[in-house]
Design goal:
Blueprint lengths: L2 E6 L8 E5 L1 H6 L5 E6 L3 E11 L13 E2 L8 H13 L4 H8 L7 E8 L12 H12 L2 E3 H8 L5 H9 L3 E8 L6 E7 L6 H10 L4 H16 L4 E2 H8 L3 H9 L3 E7 L18 H15 L4 E5 L5 H14 L3 E5 L7 H11 L3 E4 L5 H12 L7 E4 L11 E7 L17 H12 L2 E6 L4 H8 L4 E5 L10 E6 H6 L3 E2 L2 E2 H12 L3 E5 L10 E2 L16 E3 L4 E3 L6 E3 L12 E2 L5 H11 L5 E4 L9 H10 L5 E4 L12 E6 L3 H4 L6 H13 L10 E6 L5 H8 L2 H15 L5 E10 L2 H18 L3 E6 L5 E2 L2 E11 L4 H16 L8 E6 L3
Parallel strand pairs: 12-17, 12-18, 13-15, 13-16, 14-15, 16-17, 19-31, 22-29, 22-30, 28-29, 30-31
Antiparallel strand pairs: 1-2, 1-4, 3-4, 3-5, 6-7, 6-8, 9-10, 9-11, 20-21, 23-27, 24-25, 25-26, 32-35, 32-36, 33-35, 34-35
The structure holds adenosine-5'-triphosphate (ATP) and zinc ion (ZN).
Length: 817
């Protein structure tokens, strides 16, 4: 009987591939194991086994696999099911999901490597031109791959050149299939087996009496073992006994000591006994109870608790319940909020049961966490991670917490799969039959909508912990301040007064300015008016090149006005101001204050973000200027004042979610003020202080905000009332792109009843020499999403059969936000 395997490869092709295997291999292989397989002419890929069967492929001859790479599956059936869902729902391939889900070290590399023989004596004048090119390239680069050599000599078949160079002993080849991952190994020592009894030990020490250094080491080891249960590393022993490597080595050779290795990640530590879980107050207890009741009904549950109400402590209580049942727990956070603050807090309670998983971790660290979760090792019982931790090999997941569930960064933008981690987490919880809690002070409109429609359970905390008052919010009319000359630079007198007072009291200040440079909007400097699209209710975007204002949803456009449509003033500005400028002004206005800044530019590198947070926490800074990074669940003790430099730049963002996001951001950043005893103060500067959203922020009126937003979403057919899919077309040729996008959207309009907007250029319409154009499809809730997607895919097939369009990339973003 013939045997075959279906394999998924980490490439964006729809299908899986069938390879042939021997009967022996068929006995060993299980879905979820990796194999290396040949692909195309010369490539070798790592693939994942989906299925073992006896049906030969119809249209091609199955190749044999190269090698089996695992002894047991590294991916389990629930994961495969989950990946299938992600691929289906977000309209991408299983291979793309796999590439995003597996740490890259698991995707084995195979390439022929060419290295320079550094020992060779080379007479360059004897080299032919093409030989010299390769030789020269190898002076700059230690290793070349075959296809790189092709590019250098501009020829496809390079093997003859390489053969000549090999003959001349100038290069050598290295065929390498290697695992990139190597666990960190640490050397430990213990007393040899024969010396474990007291008697034996006594005799040993006697026999060592003439070797004082050696007996010193043995005694030290004994003492160290008495002090703690932890394994003793060779370095620790050397340090403690004050002896050299040679002495320890001699003892190991005599077999008095035994050396052994433990992978670094396996070392366990004792829990800190001092920090016990806090007792919840009555409001937290009530919320916990409501959550538990809702969990009993297997409902996704939303916890809405004002800032500093102690949501984290409620999570902690829940986590410890599931921990006791021996279940795994996943704590999802937006990438940006993965601060040491929260991790330290949880580690105090749960010690080394916690693993952290996110993109700033290196390959090794990710593989360690993966394997720990796979083997259900105690130290990975709780995983705190950003969105990609969803894809870890959980076996027995009991609870998922999605903290700051409203955060837009839970949605992956690029590359595929363009998934929303919150939504994918809900599906994952379903597959595991585990409970899932979404938490936020400012829930997303979607989640609250689901609560309203009975789909989700609900719990609420309306008070800050310790009955600290919500901060006192004050709106400052900046237009008025300018008119009355009560402003310096971008600071109103009111804000300056408050900063002064906080500084005098030795309290800290946060200044918030969210400037996102890539979507310029036109703003009247006199009245703050910004032109809106009449079809879409979003702010128009300024396109400098064409001197136009455009709606990037529907394509409505108008020439750049010479004066403001609202007040007639000719002073229109498109630049706005950013955090850097605010920092500069603060330094001039308050030369004695210590000022820091936190934005994308100052937080590159693995620990930069934590450093700024810690330094602010330790009160090494008085004033911290920053973007939305400041808003994420940070718990500072000494911040009494939060200043919002310009609320309008948020409100006028050209996006149907601008109002929702403004409410969330302002509420979150305000929530950093006055978290301990004294009531905090928030000053919000705006050209348009009567805007309903600003009123709702200052009164904490989430429900009115929600009602108004839902009304608008109904009017303009946006989520959560309708579903949307954004389709992006990408090509280097402007005309081809235009035609292709027209063709596609035309086909959509004929074939499909929903609303099709565009094609339209985004604010940045050309990236890396590729032009972009978007089409937005709005799908009525009553229509089947599945059918619509199948229709779109069918249109894509016909599209791809037109040779001119084949090179146009089509990118789907389902539930685009
Ligand atoms: N039951 C409790 N006992 C003692 N201290 C508590 C308790 N609950 C919360 N706190 C303290 O109150 C502060 C605010 O709590 P926490 O950070 O959990 O609030 P939060 O709701 O998560 O806030 P945010 O949404 O702003 O992140 C913290 O310093 C926390 O240690
Ligand atoms: Zn429009």
């Amino acid at each position: 009987m013939e045997y075959f395997v279906n394999i998924v490869l980490p490439i964006p092709l729809e299908r899986h591939f069938t390879y042939s295997i021997t009967p022996d291999e068929a006995k060993i292989l299980v879905p979820g194991m990796r194999v290396s397989v040949p692909f195309g002419k010369s490539k070798i890929y790592t693939g994942l086994v989906l299925q073992i069967h006896n049906i030969p492929p119809e249209v091609y001859e199955a190749k044999e696999i190269d090698q089996i790479l695992d002894e047991f599956p590294i991916v389990n059936p629930i994961q495969l099911q989950h990946w299938e869902w992600v691929a289906n729902y977000y309209m991408c391939t299983l291979g793309e999901v796999m590439r995003s889900a597996l740490p890259s070290a698991f995707l084995l590399e195979s390439e022929t490597l060419i290295l320079r023989n550094t020992d060779a004596d080379v007479d360059e004048s004897q080299l032919k031109d093409d030989e010299f090119l390769v030789f020269e390239a190898l002076q700059h680069q230690a290793v070349l791959k075959v296809h790189e050599v092709s590019a250098i000599v501009e020829r496809k078949n390079v093997l003859p050149i390489l053969n000549r160079l090999l003959d001349k002993n100038i290069i050598y080849l290295k065929e390498e299939v290697y695992e990139q991952y190597k666990p960190k190994l640490v050397k430990y020592v213990k007393l040899g087996k024969e010396y474990l009894s007291d008697d034996a030990l006594e005799t040993l020490l006697e026999s060592l009496s003439r070797a004082p250094k050696q007996s010193q080491v043995v005694l030290s080891l004994f003492q160290l073992q008495g002090n703690s249960q932890k394994p003793i590393s060779i370095t620790d022993l050397e340090r403690y006994s004050n002896s050299s490597k040679a002495v320890v080595k001699a003892l190991i050779e005599k077999e008095i000591l035994e050396e052994y290795h433990i992978r670094k990640d396996r070392v366990t530590y004792d829990l800190d006994e001092n920090s016990s879980i806090k007792n919840l107050n009555e409001y937290q207890l009530k919320a916990l109870k409501d959550i538990q009741v809702s969990f009993k009904e297997d409902k996704v549950t939303l916890l809405k608790g004002v800032t500093s109400s102690g949501k984290t402590e409620v999570y902690v209580k829940l986590i410890s319940e599931y921990l006791e049942q021996g279940k795994q727990i996943l704590y999802l956070l937006p990438e940006i909020a993965l601060t040491t603050q929260l991790i330290t807090r949880l580690q105090e309670y749960f010690g080394e049961k916690i693993s952290v998983f996110h993109s700033k971790y290196n390959i090794q660290e990710r593989v360690e966490v993966w394997n720990n979760v796979l083997k259900k090792v105690g130290k990975a019982q709780i995983v705190i991670g950003a969105r990609s931790s969803l894809f870890l090999p959980f076996k027995d997941l009991g609870l998922i917490i999605v903290d700051e569930e409203h955060e837009g960064s839970f949605k992956q933008f690029d590359p595929a799969p363009r998934y929303h981690a919150r939504d994918a987490a809900i599906v994952l919880a379903n597959l595991h039959r585990s409970n899932i809690l979404l938490g936020s002070a400012t829930p997303s409109i979607e989640s609250y909508y689901n609560v309203h429609h009975g789909k989700y359970g609900f719990a609420e905390i309306n008070r800050r912990f310790g009955n600290v008052l919500m901060p006192d919010m004050e709106l400052v009319d900046f237009k008025e301040a300018l008119r009355k000359r009560k402003a310096k630079g971008h600071f109103s007198e009111r804000l300056l007064e408050e900063i002064e007072e906080s500084l005098v009291n030795g309290e800290q200040i946060i200044l918030f300015q969210n400037r996102r440079g890539f979507a310029p909007v036109l703003e009247c400097l006199t009245c703050g008016h910004t032109p809106q699209c009449s079809n879409c209710d979003v702010t128009l975007t300024y396109h400098q090149y064409k001197k136009q204002l455009r709606c990037h949803y529907c394509g409505y456009h108008t020439a750049l006005p010479e004066s403001c449509a609202a007040c007639g003033s000719p002073d229109l500005d498109t630049k706005g101001f950013g955090t850097e400028q605010v920092e500069e002004e603060v330094r001039t206005l308050f030369p004695d204050a210590k000022v820091g800044r936190m934005d994308l530019d100052t937080t590159r590198g693995k620990h930069a973000y934590e450093k700024i947070i810690t330094s602010f926490e330790q009160q090494e800074m008085d004033i911290l200027v920053g973007t939305q990074m400041l808003t994420k669940g940070l718990d500072f003790r000494n911040v009494s004042l939060v200043g919002v430099m310009n609320a309008d730049s948020l409100l006028n963002f050209p996006d149907y979610r601008a109002h929702e996001k403004t409410y969330q951001m302002l509420t979150q950043v305000s929530g950093r003020a006055g978290r301990t005893q004294k009531r905090g103060k928030v000053i919000i500067q705006s050209y348009n202080p009567y805007h309903q959203i600003l009123k709702q922020v200052t009164t904490g009126d989430y429900d009115t905000m929600y009602a108004e937003q839902i009304y608008e979403r109904e009017q303009y057919k946006y989520p959560p009332i309708n579903r949307i899919i954004k389709i992006t077309f990408k090509h280097k040729n402007y005309n081809t792109l235009n035609e292709a996008a027209e063709w596609f959207s035309g086909a959509l309009r004929t074939n499909f009843g929903g609303t099709v907007l565009g094609p339209e250029f985004p604010p940045i319409s050309r990236i890396r020499n590729q032009y972009l154009k978007n089409v937005l499809v709005k799908i009525d809730k009553r229509e089947s999403l599945g059918r619509t997607k199948r229709n779109i895919k069918r249109i894509e097939k016909s599209f791809n059969s037109i040779s001119m369009y084949r090179s146009v990339r089509v990118i789907y973003n389902v539930d685009h936000i």
